[in-house]
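Hi V.,

You were right to ask for the full record rather than a summary. Here it is.
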Amino acid sequence: MGSSYPKEKIKILLLEGIHQNAVKTFQDAGYTNIELLSGALPEAELIEKIKDVSIVGIRSKTQLTAKVLEAAERLWAIAAFCIGTNQIDLKTAAKQGKVVFNSPYSNTRSVAELVIADVIFLMRGIPQKNAAAHNKVWMKSAKGSNEVRGKVLGIIGYGHIGTQVSVLAESMGLKVIYYDIVPKLPMGNATAVSSLDELLAQSDVVSLHVPSTPETKYMIGAAEFAKMQKGSFLINLSRGNVVVIEDLKAALESEHIAGAAIDVFPHEPKTNKDPFTTPLQGHTNVILTPHIGGSTQEAQENIGIDAAMKLVNYLDNGSTVGSHTVPELHLPKQEGTHRILHIHENVPGVMTEINQILSRENINVVGQYLKTNEAVGYVVLDVNSFVSHEVVEELKSLKSTIKARVLY
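Predicted structure:
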């Protein structure tokens, strides 16, 4: 049962130094036409590069804007080899029937471990002492240096990473409180609080673990810093636009906030060769890391396999589990049949039109799988007859059709 399109001709573009595990996953599945680039590309270069690509894999720097997606006429699917998908225009991708996957859970442990390290380093005053030692100054003192045991860690966003941080923090003796807009059951002895203000007022350390949404944009600014305890700390390993950096700088300079650890920034360099600037540079009580919360060898290996397997499953059998654009379908394998994929606008009467075309051609449907979301419908048809080019063109010509193809 072969693919209707030769695997070796399916062009795959992987950007930003995606782990070799991803390449191996594709190759093991028979996909060999792979280009792997170490960095992100500017929009104009990306538009040129993506024109004849069927599959693209990116990390957080590559911006798949509407303009880029419109140029990618042959693109079937996208995978973000990271947690977030805010670098992809999901609305445009959905309208074009491009399936978008990500890997939201593969690096949760890596991020959680760095949060715990940051908590300890900040509470011990390690950043300042480290900077002083490099400048030949000996700062042997217990002043401003505290154990984490018994202190309160406030977690904003109690999802997969927030809960991992909660478990690790509690095992070290921290008291954990958390706030989330959705009610969440606590892990261990963690306690939910009813408002953001309550969390800010009670916490010795505040750690952010929220997605990038209109509601979270600049959610921590001057007003929120004023509500935090004097001498408390802020950690942000979530998204760069969650914290107003200038307001954090002011809170540090007034010594209301004793220190911070920031891993994500509103503006980040495209590649390691580009310069990096932030108003927080020069503050020795701030740990600055270059968006490496999830960047461990273990995480990248896991993400490489996870995201690539989602793409392979879509390429091989049409499965869309984990998709952010096309409705999720987990599909069984069918022997001795042909499989048609049809992505369409979610309007009434589409299935009637499809079945009428198949009926006219005496094509018998063995299995039919349909799922819809607000905007898009996704139907997979297993049929026992050869599907001609003419039938595919008829399916494509339906007014509601976004994409249609014979998978095998």
